[in-house]
Each structure stands twice: as structure tokens, then as C-alpha cells.
Task: structure prediction
Amino acid sequence: MIKVVLIDDEPLARSIVAEYLQSYSNIEIVQECGDGFEGIKAIAQHHPDLIFLDVQMPKINGFEMLELLETPPAVIFTTAFDEFAMRAFETHAIDYLLKPFSKERFDKAMEKWMKQKAAPQSTQALIEAVSAQQEEQHQVVVKTGSSIRIIPISEVLYFEAYDDYVKIHTKDGYHLKKKTMQHFENTLDAAIFARVHRSFIIQVAQITRIDSADEVLLKNGVRVPLSRKGYTKLKAVLGL
Amino acid sequence: MAAVEITQKRIARTYTIVWLTWIIVQSFILSYIGLGMKQAIIDSVVSNIFTAGLGIILYNILQYYQPENDNFVYLRLWALFLAVADITIVNEVLKYIYYDDEQYLKVLHQSLPIRLCFVFLMLAIITLLTWVQYYYINVQETMERNANTETMVREAELSKLRQQLQPHFLFNSLNSISALAGSKPEEARKMIQQLSDFLRGTLKKDDQQLVTLKEELQHLNLYLEIEKVRFGHRLNTEIHCDESLNGLILPSLLLQPIVENAIKFGLYDTTDDVLIEIYTRLERNELVVEVKNPFDPTTASPKKGTGFGLTSVQRRLYLLYARNNLVKTQSQEKHFTTTIHIPQL
Result:
């Protein structure tokens, strides 16, 4: 039996996928989920072979949900209208269904997935590409153990490189996320966050003092080193 | 209108050619009235180079300072003063060169009035041409600005349309209909009806139109019914409107973007069921509409709260009533409230 999970916040949108799947005798819908949190739980519990995933959902969107999974399952995206997401799907040859879709189109997507099942999907690369394209990041979603936290971007004091991870420092400690500094530099608003060093991106509003050209003091007492380029950049952001 | 590009280089070239021509012409005139050729050329060169220089200075000053229309008299006086100064100096220089040539000095003396007239005329022409150039550039800039404004207006129209017919809303509604068509064809038909009525209402009305509160709420209800089918039990709405308020007026299609914003804000910021409440009342001859939605204060960024929808509502009300304080937002614990005031004329 092939296990499938449906994740969409609109019940009717899930029901049409369920209806179309009825003609596949070897497929079982193990769970239907109304948001990403439920989705993560269901995936951890059932280890589905395939998920149908909506992009726009409450709290965390489809991509943010995938980001939190260690090994994302095969995905067929269902979306009504997300220009940037569609571009990303196309460049990564990942199938997606534009709502409303016909049974014929749905069958084609299933056929394609069955054929490709052996080959691993490039979901990871897709996630990278999509999150880099998102217009402006306004939250960071992190997972510690089994709990998920949504950190509004304004609460991030600074980012620090940490091997393959990035430490996201907030006033109550830090969270780890498997991302590159480059990724954050590209997606953050350059007027609010500045990459002042190879290993540091700081929120400009958190600066309390700049004593010399190689160090900046944050409001919480942390000293962050400045590179020569970072110092120039910081001066430009502050209008000095 | 074919735009002729006025470059500094082109002006300088024309200016030089005009003066060189005049130097030659004046030389011939002077020799015709009896001066020696060499004397005529030197006279012509000295006096005209001086005037040409003065013209350049005048031109450059006028680049930075263009007088208002009523200051033209003043400007002409200036040209006259410069002409007198010019002739005086040129006269002295030429007298110095040919101090011992009686005949030349006589010709020079006699031609002073005509020289003065000529220099004044030239300076006046330069002033006029500078003004024409300035005016021409001004007209070009205005035309460019107008073209830009037109594009902006068109873009605004387009974005207005797009905002009312959110593709997300449209395609997701169609998807719901598609789902219902298989299992509950009667409901599918009903939803098609609602969606059609809603779209017709949106297309029919224009921006300037004022409608009664009753009409506006009917239109809003169509929208809410569709959204409720999409989101199922998660979305609940309550509209509080006393019958006595039915006849109050407001700009058409004003409430939908606000409610849409509230729904988006409420539904996408929490995972619980959502209640959208709409209150209406009459307060000091203003219709007051309050739209209330739940939100999660721990994750909602304040920036998200005043979305694009509200900005455009604010803009519309400002254009209609010239007041900036007609849209207010407020967040209280877990509720976000948008309040709009519509003056009753």
C-alpha cells in the first residue's frame, strides 16, 4: 500500500484530491491535515510515500513546513496562484497542480510520480530556491526537539554562523537552523539587518555603540566583530 | 511633437558661427563707410568679442535665475545697463589703440549710438532665446511628467482590479466548486450563482459611486458566503447592523477589502476557528464600521497588520473626503480591530 497525506487548509480542496485518489486501488490516505503543524506530526507518525501540499496555509506555509522535516517525502504541490513558487517548481522539475485541476491532469501527475519514485526528488534544492526567492522574510520557523517556534524577524537580535548551521540569537537564547549566512543575507531587509562580518548579521536597531572600526556593541551587551567591509556597509546603512 | 535635443555643444557652435559671421559683416560695413580694411577688422573683432563674452555671462546667469513674467522690464533695464557699460569700455579700448587717428576717432564717435543700439539688441535677443530655451525644456518636462502620471493612474486602476479580484480567491473558489460538483452538485450550483453575483457586483460598480449600507452589506455577504464554503467551519461571521442604518451611504466596495484583510489576518495567523465580527453605528453624523478579527500577538509582525488592503482603503477615503483620520486600527490582546468612519453628507 502506498501511504498518502493530504495537507491543505481548505476542506473541499482536500476532498477533491481524495475523490481523485479513489480510482487508485493501491493508495491509502492515512491522514488529512488542515495546517503545517498537523502535517509535520502526521508525516513523523506515518512516514507517507507521498504528500499533497498546499502552499498558502495558516501560520507556516508549505515551504516552511518542508524546511522543518529532516527527510521530506515526495511532494506534489497544489496551489491556486503563486507566481514565484511556480517558477521554482519548474526549474526543479517538481510537479504541481494548479487549482482547479482536472482528473486527467491529476492522473498525469500521479503517473509521473510513479515513474520517478525510484529517483530521489530534488525537494531540498527546491526549498533552498524558494526561500531565497521569497520577497521578504518576516519570520523564521525553527524546531527544537518536537516543538516548533515561529520567531518574528523583528525579535532576532543577530545571526551567527555555526558550522553548517546558523545560530539565531533572540533575547531568550539562540536557535539553530540549517541554513547558510548567504541565505539570510539575501532574504533579509538590508535596511534592518546588516552583514557586518563573515560570521555575523546584526539587526541595526540593536546597536548601542560603535567604538572602533572593528567592533560593535549591542544593547544586550554582546560585542560583535566588524570586518573592514562590514564597517563600510554599516556606515552606509546608518547614513554616516 | 518631435523633440529637438538642445545640447550645450550645439548652442555653443551656433553662437560662435553667428558672431564670426557678424564680425565679417561689420568689417565690411566699416570699410564701406571709409575705414581701412585692417582698421575695420580690428574694430569689429574687439567690439564683438567683448559683446559675445558678455552674452555668454548673461546666458549663464539666466540658467540659474529665470525672472517671473512681471520682472521683464527689470531685465531689459539690466540689458541696457550692460550695453552702455559694454560700449563705454569698447570705446575706451579702441580710442587707446588708435589715439592718433583723427578720422577713425570721428567715425567711432559718430557710430556710438548705433553701436549701443546694436549691442542692446543682441543682449535682448540672447535674453529672449535663453527664456525660450528654458520654457521649451519646461514644457518637455511637464509633458514627461504628465505621461508618467498617466501611467501611474493606469497602474493604479489595474491594481485596483486585481485587488478586488484576488486570483487566490477566484481560483480557490473555483476549486471548491469543482470539489462540490462531484459530491454535492446542488451546492456547487449555488456557489456558482454566488460567485457570479459577486463578480457582477464588483464589475458593475465604479470607484466614485456611493451606495447604501444595505447594498454594500449584501455584496459583502455574497463574499462571506463563498469564503465560508472554502474554509468550512473554521470561518464564522457576525454582522451587527440595525435596520435604521440601512439607508446610510458609503463608497461602493469599501468594506470587502477590509473584511478580506481581517479574514486573511485571522485565518492565516491562527490555526483555530475564527470569528469575524462586523459592527455598524451612526456617530456624530458619521457611519462607523468596525471589523474585528482574532490574531496571535506573539507571531504577528506589526507591519503585517496594516496590509495593502487597508492602505488602499485609506487612500480612497482620503481622495473622497480629504481626511486622513478615517481609518484606524487597534490591537487589543488577541483581537485586531479596523474602524472606518464615513462622513454622511
